[in-house]
Structures are given as structure tokens and as C-alpha cells.
């Protein structure tokens, strides 16, 4: 068995032909704006990976999903990031269906039937502000709901069919609550502005999506019981957050694995150094898989599982840092001069560090949770 074989077998089983399609393109082609990767993912049926089989989807288990994402990340880092946003938006929709009006099931079936891609407009962490405070507001206007605000960065901005957005609503008594809004991309008032200036992960289509007086049917807005001032996610946000942590971590472990794979191929460094690179990343992936297995085996998800997911994610950040540095050294100066793929993959793999919640803002909350207190995420 070769490195990453298990993950690629899962990818081939769930989305036949996608791995070969991605491998046929140079990395630089996949990672730049206008990448063919998103279209290849759509054509392979990737939109339905996490849609339950009762709605016609593939119904992948959490364990299968993280292995698939690692394989995708090893071929195309930008696609792993972009599709993580789609997958966890779908997961949020599945959870919302437990509390919603019934349209969620119809949308899930449409995702499969029409290969619809969901962009995630859940709040990104902004300096000094909770990730549970969205940048989009929703207010009643007659029989409809009016949305205003923006999400940046928003992956799949150019390819999305639906924006799944976390929004702030205001009750009659003035209480602000979180809700989920599902906005068709062609709705009047939806626009995309340039935002991503880096060449790293440029294929993820991460731009600013702006909503200006967007009129939406109330059925497309699912209310939650979580107030905007809360630091404790409700069931829908918790489910999405868990999926996000394990999927995004697996994708970046795949990206770091692509760099290590190049070391193994060329025989760089000593055998002990190559073995250390593999075992470090595989150990981190085993932690992610342990969380994914528990997600699949546990009916009720709560704080303890989220603590484990965050622990696995932060441990993976350390493993990626060690592996990318060691892999570049093992490849040597000739590889550095001959191609920028190694340095690109190392840069792309560090992206895990920048997704919310940042380790520094979470450290105190994790320690408190491990001391028996409720987990609070800022």
C-alpha cells in the first residue's frame, strides 16, 4: 500500500474519475483563477457527497468524507477548500431540516438532481469579533424577507448556485437571533466583488459576495434559538462547525501530503526523515478520523465532540508545519530552483492556521471546557 492509497480509493469509489481528471492537469492550472477543478467536481457528482441517500445523495459517512477530502487536497488544495465550504453548508442544511419547514428536503434533492453547489456564507472570524456574528442582516418586509450585507471571503463565489448564509434577524422585542438563509445565486441584488489578492488558493474562487436589498421567500430562512451575543453554537451551527473542522483539516493534511509524496517519489532526505514526514501527517489524520468515527457513531453531538475536533485540528496545524518544513529541506535546493510546486504546497498547507476559530482565541475556552465548563467559542 502506498502513501494516500486509502484516501484515493475512497475518492474513486465515491466520485469515480475525479482523481484521474485532477491528476491530468498541472498543479498551477488547478490553482489559478478559472481552474477546471470546480467544474470537474460538479461533473463527478460531488455536490451530493453529504446529501443523505433518502434524498438521492451519496450519504457519505464522516469517515469517508474526511478521507475523500484528504485525497482532494493532495491533488488540488483550492478544490479541497472550496468543496469543504459546500459540504459543510449541505451538512447545515441537513441539520436545519430537523427544525425547518420542509423545503430543506426539496433543496437537498435539487442539489443532487441538478448538481447544485452551495457557497458558505457563515460568518468568518474577524479580528476582535465572534464568528457567530454574521455580516448579513435579515428583516421582514411585508410577506418577504430583505437581506443586506456581505460575506468575504466566500469560496465558490463564481460557481455557486445557492448561497447558504448565516444571518442576523431581529424579533419584535428587539432580540437579535441567528438564522440560516438559502439564497439562489441569480436572485436580484446578489453580486460578486474581487477580494482574494493572493495567488495561493486562488482556484477556490474566494471573493466577496454582496447582498443588496435581496428579497427572499421566508421559507428560505430557517430561524434558530441562538442569539447573536451568544458564544455557544446551537444544534445547526454545531453540526456545521464539527463538519467544517474535520473536513478542512483533512483537506490541508492532503495538501501537506502532496508535498511529502514528492519527497517519497524522489527519495529525498534519509529514510528516517522520510518516515518521520509520513508518520507525523498520518498520526494527525488518525486523530481526525477518530473524531469522524465518533461523529458517525454518536447520535447527539455536543461540546465534548467539538473539543476533540478542535484538538485534532490544532494538532494537525503543528504536524503540517513540521512536515512542510522538513519536506522542503529534504527536496533540496535543486527542487527549489527547478519548480515552485514545493513552496506553493507548503504555503497552501499553512492556510489551516487562518480559518476560525484561531488557536489563540480558543485556548482559554478549551482549557475551561476540559475543566468541566461549557465550551465558549469567540
UniProtKB/TrEMBL annotation:
What SUPFAM superfamilies does the entry give?
Acyl-CoA dehydrogenase NM domain-like
* Superkingdom field: Bacteria
Domain Acyl-CoA oxidase/dehydrogenase middle, residue spans: 122-214
Q: Which InterPro entries match?
A: Acyl-CoA_Oxase/DH_mid-dom (IPR006091), Acyl-CoA_Oxase/DH_mid-dom_sf (IPR046373), AcylCoA_DH/ox_N_sf (IPR037069), AcylCoA_DH/oxidase_NM_dom_sf (IPR009100)
List the Pfam families hit by this protein, alphabetically.
Acyl-CoA_dh_M
Instruction: Print the keywords alphabetically.
Output: FAD, Flavoprotein, Oxidoreductase
Gene Ontology molecular function: any one: acyl-CoA dehydrogenase activity
Q: Which residues form the signal peptide?
A: none
UniProt name for this protein: Oxidoreductase
- What lineage does UniProt assign to this protein's organism? Bacteria, Bacillati, Actinomycetota, Actinomycetes, Kitasatosporales
Amino acid at each position: 500500500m502506498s502513501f494516500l492509497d486509502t484516501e484515493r480509493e475512497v475518492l474513486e469509489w465515491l466520485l469515480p474519475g475525479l482523481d484521474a481528471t485532477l491528476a491530468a492537469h498541472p498543479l498551477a492550472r488547478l490553482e489559478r483563477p478559472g481552474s477546471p477543478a470546480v467544474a470537474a467536481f460538479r461533473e463527478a457528482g460531488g455536490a451530493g457527497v453529504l446529501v443523505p441517500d433518502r434524498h438521492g445523495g451519496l450519504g457519505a459517512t464522516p469517515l469517508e468524507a474526511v478521507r475523500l477530502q484528504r485525497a482532494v487536497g493532495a491533488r488540488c488544495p483550492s478544490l479541497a477548500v472550496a468543496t469543504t465550504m459546500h459540504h459543510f453548508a449541505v451538512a447545515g442544511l441537513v441539520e436545519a431540516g430537523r427544525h425547518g419547514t420542509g423545503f430543506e428536503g426539496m433543496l437537498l434533492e435539487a442539489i443532487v438532481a441538478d448538481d447544485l453547489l452551495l457557497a458558505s456564507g457563515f460568518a468568518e472570524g474577524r479580528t476582535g469579533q465572534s464568528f457567530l456574528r454574521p455580516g448579513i442582516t435579515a428583516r421582514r418586509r411585508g410577506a418577504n424577507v430583505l437581506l443586506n450585507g456581505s460575506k468575504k471571503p466566500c469560496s465558490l463565489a463564481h460557481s455557486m448556485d445557492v448561497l447558504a448564509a448565516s444571518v442576523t434577524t431581529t424579533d419584535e422585542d428587539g432580540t437579535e437571533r441567528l438564522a440560516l438563509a438559502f439564497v439562489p445565486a441569480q436572485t436580484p441584488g446578489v453580486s460578486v466583488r474581487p477580494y482574494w489578492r493572493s495567488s495561493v488558493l486562488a482556484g477556490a474562487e474566494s471573493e466577496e459576495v454582496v447582498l443588496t436589498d435581496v428579497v427572499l421567500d421566508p421559507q428560505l430562512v430557517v430561524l434558530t434559538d441562538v442569539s447573536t451575543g451568544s458564544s455557544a453554537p446551537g444544534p445547526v451551527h454545531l453540526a456545521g462547525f464539527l463538519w467544517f473542522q474535520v473536513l478542512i483539516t483533512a483537506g490541508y493534511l492532503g495538501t501537506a501530503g502532496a508535498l511529502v509524496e514528492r519527497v517519497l517519489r524522489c527519495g529525498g532526505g534519509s529514510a528516517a526523515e522520510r518516515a518521520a514526514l509520513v508518520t507525523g501527517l498520518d498520526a494527525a489524520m488518525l486523530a481526525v478520523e477518530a473524531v469522524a468515527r465518533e461523529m458517525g457513531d454518536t447520535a447527539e453531538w455536543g461540546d465534548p465532540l467539538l473539543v476533540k475536533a478542535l484538538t485534532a485540528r490544532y494538532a494537525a496545524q503543528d504536524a503540517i508545519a513540521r512536515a512542510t518544513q522538513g519536506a522542503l529541506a529534504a527536496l533540496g535546493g535543486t527542487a527549489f530552483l527547478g519548480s515552485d510546486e514545493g513552496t506553493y504546497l507548503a504555503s497552501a498547507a499553512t492556510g489551516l492556521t487562518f480559518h476560525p476559530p484561531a488557536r489563540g482565541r480558543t485556548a482559554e475556552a478549551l482549557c475551561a471546557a476540559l475543566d468541566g465548563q461549557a465550551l465558549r467559542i469567540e
